[in-house]
């Protein structure tokens, strides 16, 4: 675990005097228990580990210089076990960058790739140099370098929101794409500051958690290509260069030796507005790739420890990105644990979404483990004790664990079955009524409430990977030609429907239907048990023009078009209403104590009360939530009626006790009166017409 400057000052200065001189620099053994570069009074402690290296050099560079101005070899007595540590005195952290060179055996079949000519990045680096200008090539073959970072950000009396998982509404966003388009009207487009400028918008929308796509340092130029005169980059950032360093190209200004400051300001501002921050983290692979990829960090430190290797020394590729991090090796476990603790303590992050998390449960030979030690350690770590842990419970190697991901009642999951089943149900596929009821009720068939609680399922219909909500109802097929792979990349199983016309159209009836389909999706998502998540821009109908895999598109395909906010203001207002409706009605989110003589906490119905229709052609389902709300001191009841069928049906509601009546809160089939405030909800009788391809939500007054 990293030791901060404030901790070091507890050591008396007279105990930190130089003991040796190496190439003119005064040095002494450093802090062996503190990996990375740690500032101390009068110097810097540099500490790394390597189990296979025979020697190690610390390289010091002037800023942007090609060659080091010093190469300090660690003396033998500056090594304990497999740890090298040295304090170098008299360094001004603003005047140098650093890296390492390690020597040792080279035998690819044994997984040993030591090369004393390679410049290696500190695995615990807090900042990576040469990355702060977006779209500018940094040749990793020449090595990445690190910068020493001051940890002096003043959090003041900042308090994290500590919002329970079931009360979250998660908004997934890409830092650059969120405000990069000029229509965003922010002072620093495409940056942490740009996102910060949009906090009033997020507050108005009503979400209370932002899930940021990767903000760890990555090299967007790693696989840069020119296709049809368009520059394609590693735009999404799912190829980490360093796990401890923020992506400095997302900062609006240079932050020498203060890297991460703007990100911390963003997190603090979000917290001040009651919004959690969840980071999308990628511990399943790195940007070093397979045997043909560069060697700039882990390959040069201990290739056979950090990566899963075949018996012949090749790289297992359960990530689909060339290599697979060896997460359950004790050294890698410790690295990941140290990293997450760092982001929680130094950046006050509230949660993590783990990309391809099933890899984190694979053994060193690639086989799935029943009780993965890494996942267990994260679940019970005291510093991580209150942060959200969210797994993408599958990987590119075919391991699919939705509903069975090891949890210890701490891990939630991206519920891929909610996405797939509800997409099919909402577009009108037959035979899914029973499955849809389970998904809306929090998927108790997948997540046993007794062992997993009510917050294991993160429900989503859209995310960065796949169609936007608008495109889900505008395209039958993906249109990824701009990616340069002849439309072979991206998923073919989109479960989408174009509402009769492929792509953009001026047909008013098609446009009206598409908007109603989007509202149906929003209404059902916000009245489903579990934690709802949706993709930024869905609330105003943002489009990617049918591209369901724009990982490389740093342009209008991926950037949010904020002009659509006014064009589709009614859709935005509907999202805002549904988010507020969910927060207002606790019965949707959790089981409340039943009212005396009242309805059960949850129940499933069909067109006839208490009689769900699970016949093959049934397309309609109704869900009722009920319970005694202590704040309102009355029984709260919410009744969700979903009709993806294209014909109007007659719906009968359950009988209510004397003095109670049903009222309509939402009716997507009535464009003139989509939503109603509490005081103006129209009262209805027990029978109502449920329009084709529409959703009605009732409450009781």
UniProtKB/TrEMBL annotation:
Residues 172-582 form the Glycosyl hydrolase family 13 catalytic domain. The keyword Transit peptide applies. It comes from the Bacteria. SUPFAM superfamilies: (Trans)glycosidases, E set domains, Glycosyl hydrolase domain. Keywords: Glycosidase, Hydrolase, Transit peptide. The keyword Cytoplasm does not apply. GO terms for biological process: glycogen catabolic process. Pfam families: Alpha-amylase (PF00128), CBM_48 (PF02922). One of its GO terms (molecular function) is amylo-alpha-1,6-glucosidase activity. Belongs to the glycosyl hydrolase 13 family. PANTHER family: GLYCOGEN DEBRANCHING ENZYME (PTHR43002). This is Glycogen operon protein. It comes from Faecalicatena orotica.
